[in-house]
Amino acid sequence: MLEYQVLAASSIGFAVFMVHLATVLITGTGIDPARSFGAAVTFNNEKIWDDQWMNSGFSGWGHLLEHLLQQSITSTYRESQP
Q: Which residues contact 40 (CB under 8 A, 6 or more apart)?
């Protein structure tokens, strides 16, 4: 089971790395909501909240989707065990 944990950590790290590469030139900060909010406050005082709803909204939907996928995968895994 340990090899799967190492593989999961590597794939998560790689996914975060790829998202950073793809979005850092667009967003100027990356995928961390705290960094995005800090940059919005520092550099764009008039429009701080225009895009901040995405950090909250997409995070919530992402957590819900992850939970549903995890439940689906673990139930399938449990059913396949003898």
A: 47, 48, 51, 52
